Amino acid sequence: MSLEIDWSSAEVHGGDVTVELAGKVSKQSRERFEAVRSLLGESSGGWDEVKLVKRTIHVRGLRPGEEHELRHFLDTVVVQVNAELPSRDEEAEQASGPSDRAAIADAEMTATLRSFAEQQARR
Q: Is 5 left (phi over 0), alpha (psi -120 to 50) or beta?
């Protein structure tokens, strides 16, 4: 499951924002989040600092009227993180080693060969 920002969880207190991420937030995704955020820079002046702690994005010092810019910035970071990390299907494919693939192939060939017996019995 890819990461998504759960905007319904957003809260602002004294200009400080918290918003939750939905999806599996792994150590690798947190590291990518910080790297992408760093590459994009903090802001165009609409807020002070963005950081990800566990599954919560913390934004310090959001200025009034900058909400849409912040959303665009955070959505951009999350889209890039999702693009760089393998999906669950890719992870499963990487995790299934040659022996797993061989076992699946063996099972499929066994089923095909056994279906020949059913065909013989019908004759």
A: beta
Whether residue 19 contacts residue 26, with contact meaning beta carbons closer than 8 Å, is answered with no
List the 4-13 sheet strands across, edge first.
4-13, 16-22, 56-60, 49-53
Query: Within 10 Å of residue 60's Cβ, how many Cβ atoms?
Result: 14
Continuous H helices in 49-97: 67-84, 88-95
Q: How far apart are CA 92 and CA 85, in angstroms?
A: 13
Residue 86 scores a pLDDT above 80:
no
Angle of CA points 92, 95, 100, to nearest 5°: 100
Cα–Cα dist 27/33, whole Å: 10
Q: Is the pTM of this model over 0.90?
A: no
